[in-house]
Amino acid sequence: MKNFWLVIVGMFLLVAGCETAGTAATSSEAVETSTDAADFEYVLGTGDRLRVLVFGEENLSGEFLINPTGNISLPLVGEIRAAGKTEREFQASIEAALREGYLNDPRVSTEVLNYRPYYILGEVSGSGEYPYAGGLTVMNAIATAGGYTYRANRNIVYIKRMDGDAEVRVELTPSTKVRPGDTIRVPQRLF
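and the corresponding structure tokens:
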């Protein structure tokens, strides 16, 4: 009889260790979970809205949207690649383009006004696309999506970063960060 209970407990542990179906990377892959916002430098992407200020040149300044090709069309210089660059790299690109026959010593400042949205799906009440705000955590994102369903696994989530190829399994903590463009999947629990 003792062996019977050991087999039952062993089967329970085996089933509890299984995950829901889906392609996911192992948890050994790095996923940002700290609360420090400076842990990564933000990389611009399609859908970001930027304010570009060219000091002393109001007619060259304004608000611009990174188009689906990853570019921003600026007065005088035309299209400049923005997607895949940090704000500093993008500022340097604008300054270099303006130096080529337009301004002697251009000084440019950029600011992200609206980040691209993040997506949440799975066992939440309101799957969909949501606007990103600085400092957003997965717990905040789940709350914004109406909270968990009764079937949700509240211990792990899967995150696919905008610049990643695969979902990464993440142990859920209050400090697990969301980045613009992330897709968060809340899996179903087994019991």
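(Above: one complete record from the training split.) The beta strands are 49-54, 62-65, 71-74, 78-81, 108-114, 118-122, 128-130, 156-160, 168-171, 183-186.
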